[in-house]
Amino acid sequence: MNGDLISTTAIRQRGQLTIPKKLRKRLDWLSEGSLVSVLSSLGEVKIMPYRKSSEKVNWKGIWDKVRLARSFKGEKGNLSQFIIQDRSSH
Length: 90
Known about the structure:
With 90 residues, the protein is α+β, with helices and mostly antiparallel strands. It has two domains: 13-49, no CATH class; 59-88, no CATH class. It is built from three helices and four strands, in the order αββαββα. β1 (36-41) and β2 form a beta hairpin. The longest helix has 13 residues, at 59-71. The mean pLDDT is 82.
């Protein structure tokens, strides 16, 4: 079968699917936090690496900025808490 791996897994509550470790180890793009494209055609589902452009997304940098924004504490308190309160007041 041309080096293909076949594995069986179950779809869990809320549609979650665990990709078996032997597949994740073989495909470096199947790592935690990776974006994937999911295509449905002719009764099958295909999972592919997401590619918006040739530029690779710096997820560590993005999450570092999110953590920095969450850690901000000014005279009026925590920025994350402010956003939560603001959203719930509308």
